[in-house]
What does this fold into?
Amino acid sequence: MPEDARPNRRIRIHLALTVLALLAGSAAAQAPQAAEQGELANHPWVMPPPNWSPEAYFTNLRDGAQLESPFVARFGLSMRGIVPAGKTAGQAGHHHLLINQPLPLDFKKPLPFTDQYIHFGKGQMETVVDLPPGTYSLRLVLADQGHIPYFVYSKPLKLTVSKQNKGVAPASVVGEPRIEILSPADRSTVQLPLRVQLHASGYNVSHAAPKLPDTGHFRLTLERPGQKAEVIELDRGQTELWLNPPKGSYSARLELLNNADGKPMARQKPVAFSVP
It folds into this structure.
């Protein structure tokens, strides 16, 4: 081989190895997305959220809010499903409410059981918070069957409790057991992609696989004039989905199905919306 050809050959080999490394890195970056894809409901209109990121969040509380206690904190979850503590199903987990606590330093250790680490191991989507006057930081963390946290959590939410009302029964704050479509709003015109947020009050939500009799999973039915109904089973314990449906007028019906026998546990009055 000519002497001057050896450097060129080394350069070509280096470039080839660099390209392979970049391709390997790209494949690795796509791997988590492929795993997340498996957590989505199985329907052609369902799509990932715009940021592709699983997260927990509060659906009814806002950063900087001032309120009186007791109050209800409602939990939302993106790109994941719920399953009670002690049970394993895909990447589903159960909620934890952290009060005045940072994220854990070690995500390989279970979360403690204290007044500042409140566990919702039955599959609950809400709780009544009763705090004395003061300023607080609230955060949600999703954890697995052994209370070991996933990297799925909310941003810290700061709020101020101005007054604590004594002798208030939690049931009077929460209201009757029910399920709800939080968004879209009834009779609204929506933009795509459409974020659908669901909630269960007084019921426990779970991935259907463990078949727990005291839990249910959501079923969303979308109806259009002159078209067959589109049924979306959220049987992985999902409480949120993003949709890209065709243009038209829709009626959305929500049910909570018992995971033991598949029978409806609760129904909501249909919500109407339109896609221009």
Notes: The mean pLDDT is 90. Residues 5-37 form the longest helix (33 residues). The helical segments are 5-37, 170-174. The radius of gyration is 23 Å.
